[in-house]
């Protein structure tokens, strides 16, 4: 992690309201490059809203969200989409997979926005990632996968283009304890200097993160830095 380096993310005075009610009120947030941050807190506390603001999916009513030198809160929609495509891997709570495609086809989808046909090396990388995450790559249509396999497919897809930022919303929510441990270890092993912000309630994920930010009623109520736990299984390199 870039200890002492300038933050890769600087948020200031971020506010989001829905129907006149303030959902998020974050005066300041800085994240160091390569850090592993868990965003936790009770249901409805604003975690997904903050993640979407950090991803540029949701424009805050107020404030700045500066990644590197780009204030994504000021970008037009198309520029924001382009910035996200170039920089961010996203794991959504509801996965956003296409059921009628194979898992490997879902994982290679991000590549189809930039390439007419998926380059063979990205196809191989997709298969390698699915293998690392224990998903049968071509065997079935995605709709036949279990919820846990779908979740792991969504994580593999977020990693395909080796984004510098990974934002994940409850990436272990559908997994049993062993799978959650394995997926967390694989995810973290695959981070080569990536900055990760993970919304989670899962102690298995939290113990592997260096920083735990807790939200309540849309505000940061605690922000703790500590030594993360070591992986429980041998780290696999995708
Ligand atoms: N589009 C919207 N319109 C109105 N209210 C919304 C909207 N999106 C979120 N909210 C409200 O904002 C609050 C925060 O929601 P958010 O999904 O960010 O919480 P969360 O901490 O991620 O919750 P969970 O752990 O249950 O996923 C909730 O009260 C939710 O109902």
From TrEMBL:
Ranges for domain ABC transporter: 9-236
Full protein name: ABC transporter ATP-binding protein
UniProt-recorded Gene Ontology molecular function terms: ATP binding; ATP hydrolysis activity; transmembrane transporter activity
Claim: Protein biosynthesis is one of the keywords in the record: no
PANTHER family, sorted: IMPORT ATP-BINDING PROTEIN, LIPOPROTEIN-RELEASING SYSTEM ATP-BINDING PROTEIN LOLD
Protein family according to the UniProt entry: Belongs to the ABC transporter superfamily.
Leader peptide range in chain numbering: none
GO cellular component: plasma membrane
Keywords: ATP-binding, Nucleotide-binding, Translocase
Pfam families assigned to the protein according to its UniProt record, in alphabetical order: ABC_tran
């Amino acid at each position: 992690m870039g200890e002492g380096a300038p933050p890769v993310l600087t948020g200031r005075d971020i506010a989001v309201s829905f129907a006149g009610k303030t959902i998020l009120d974050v005066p300041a947030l800085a994240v160091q490059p390569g850090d592993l941050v868990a965003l936790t807190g009770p249901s409805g506390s604003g975690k997904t809203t903050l993640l979407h603001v950090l991803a540029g999916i949701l424009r805050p009513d107020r404030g700045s969200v500066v990644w590197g030198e780009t204030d994504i809160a000021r970008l037009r929609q198309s520029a924001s989409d382009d910035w996200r495509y170039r920089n961010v891997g996203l794991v959504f709570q509801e996965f956003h997979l296409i059921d009628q495609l194979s898992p490997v086809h879902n994982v290679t989808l991000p590549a189809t926005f930039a390439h007419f046909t998926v380059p063979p090396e990205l196809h191989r990388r997709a298969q390698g990632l699915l293998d690392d995450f224990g998903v049968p790559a071509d065997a079935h249509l995605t709709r036949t996968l279990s919820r846990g396999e779908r979740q792991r497919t969504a994580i593999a897809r977020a990693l395909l283009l080796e984004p510098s930022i990974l934002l994940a919303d409850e990436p272990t929510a559908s997994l049993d304890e062993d799978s959650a441990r394995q997926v967390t270890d694989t995810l973290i092993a695959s981070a080569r200097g990536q900055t990760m912000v993970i919304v989670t309630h899962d102690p298995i994920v939290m113990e592997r993160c260096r920083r735990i930010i807790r939200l309540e009623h849309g505000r940061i109520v605690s922000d703790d830095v500590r030594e993360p736990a070591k992986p429980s299984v041998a780290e696999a390199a995708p």
